[in-house]
Amino acid sequence: MKSKSEIAAGGCRAGLALIFLAGGLSAVTPARAHLSIIHQGAESRGTRETGDRFGEELAAADFNGDGYDDLATAAVGENSFEGVVIVNPGSRYGLTQVGADILTEDDFGGAELVHSFGGALAAGDFNHDGYHDLAVGTPGYDGTSVNNIGRVYLYSGGPGGLTPWATLRQTDAGGAEEEGDLFGDKLLAGDMNGDGYDDLFISAVGEDDNAGVVFWFMGSAAGLGGAAEGWIKQSTIGGTNEVDDSFGLSLALGNLVGDSRLDLVVGAPNKTVGGQLRGRPGDGDHRRCFRPGDRHGL
Q1: Using alpha carbons only, how large is the chain's radius of gyration in Å?
Q2: Which of 103, 108, 202, 292 is the most exposed place for a label (fewest CB within 10 A)?
Q3: Rounded-to-5 percentages of helix, strand, coil across the chain
Q4: Cβ(93)–Cβ(99) below 8 Å
Q5: Rounded Cα distance, 56 and 119, in Å
Q6: Cβ pair 228, 204 in contact under 8 A
Q7: Got the DSSP string for 22-91?
Q8: What 3-state class would DSSP assign to 145?
Q9: 3-state SS, residue 191
């Protein structure tokens, strides 16, 4: 897992988002969509600058309930990795810059450098009100005396678009905030228990020297954090938590056992399996852990 200094020194690109329409790549032309290439600036919000990394994370959903999906795009490197998220509304002509919104950590009381607001994005209707909500991972968030503990910020969807809603912490689901946990490094949303409310899964890949953990928050009429929540590690399903396994570095939901409910798959790409040495972070996919869902969730 990269340190803050490695992250800050890494990227030097401004970034962009490309829109490809259904019907095959050969059918894509700029004239078929209001916006087919989006930069920071005239096509969205903000200013195009070196190192912004606009487009590093994306989430598409209908946040304002007008029947058109909108696009949330993270520029994680904005202002020395303080990070921003820009939302382009959908329309009958495709995405538009008209009414584009910009989200920052200031919406929740203050932004700081290298917090990486927008380091992960996930959209879901967590309170089943007909409007999709947005979860924004901020894995570089620092506590009072510990760094990189992480936070996840929730925006509520509504007729006027996204508005600040709530903040999720590891402690909300029975965890402890420790140096380098990177809570919010990966996010995934979906209705795992089939109750009509989308649920949220949050990785803290840096937990226990990068062994990793995945937290889960079940949706409800009150949103997230008001219903069941908890966490899973490899040891939860009979495995061993080892340094640098990176459990939670990838997440996926699917109906894998055919029981009408979604199941969770968690990647641990640096796990040593069958005597084979783990790769360096990012080098290969050595194990995936499967956790079936039921009406109670995990």
Answers
A1: 19
A2: 292
A3: 10, 30, 55
A4: no
A5: 8
A6: no
A7: SS-GGG--GGGSS-SEE-SSTTSSS---TT--EEEEEEEE-SSSSSS-EEEEEETTHHHHT-EEEEEPEE
A8: coil
A9: coil
pTM of the full structure:
0.85
Q: Which pLDDT score, from 0 to 100, does residue 24 have?
A: 54
| pLDDT band, very low/low/confident/very high, at 41 (cuts 50, 70, 90) | confident
Closest to 184 (Cα-Cα) out of 46, 66, 76? 76
| Burial profile 116-139: b = 16 or more Cβ within 10 angstroms, e = fewer | bbbbbbbbbbbbbeebbbbbbbbb
User: How does pLDDT run across 125-157, given as a tens digit for each residue?
Assistant: 999 999 999 999 999 999 888 999 999 999 999
How many C-alpha atoms does 139 have within 13 Å on its Cβ side?
Answer: 25
How large is the greatest C-alpha to C-alpha distance in the chain, in angstroms?
Answer: 56
Residue closest to 88 by CA, chosen among 41, 148, 140, 26:
41
Residue 266, beta-bridge partner list: 251, 289
According to DSSP H, which parts of the chain are helical?
4-10, 78-81, 207-210
For residue 159, the cross-strand partners are none
The span from the first CA to the last CA of the chain, in angstroms, equals 27
Cα 188 from Cα 174, distance rounded (Å) = 19
* Cα distance between residue 240 and residue 235, in whole Å: 5
Of 131, 121, 124, which Cα lies nearest the Cα of 84?
121
